[in-house]
Design goal:
elongated
């Protein structure tokens, strides 16, 4: 059995690092809904329901191009994707492709 002598003990210096944990910043408050954009989106939806897809598509693109970061712009993009899917199901591949390319 070996014994440890005082001479054998090596003292080691250890750096102490202090870590501070902070909460992430609160998200910015959502912008209040814009009633004009909401009406434009409803109008575009109305065109689409009434069988006027070209008017609806143009209004959707205006919302996407000019207000893409708003909730209405996001919804307009989703509605355009739905129009593309409908075109594909109907075999209107050229129209679907044109819309997809414009969405890029």
């Amino acid at each position: 059995m070996s014994t440890i002598r005082e001479d054998d003990v090596v003292e080691e210096e250890v750096d102490v690092v202090q870590v501070t944990i902070t909460n992430p910043p609160a998200p910015a408050p959502a912008a209040p809904p814009n009633p004009v954009l909401a009406r434009l989106l409803r109008m575009a939806d109305g065109y689409r329901r009434s069988g006027q897809p070209y008017q609806a598509i143009e209004m959707y693109f205006e919302l996407v191009d000019d207000h893409g970061e708003t909730p209405q712009g996001v919804q307009a993009r989703e509605h355009l994707m739905a129009v593309c899917e409908q075109y594909e199901q109907e075999g209107k591949m050229r129209q679907a492709r044109a819309l997809y390319e414009r969405l890029l």
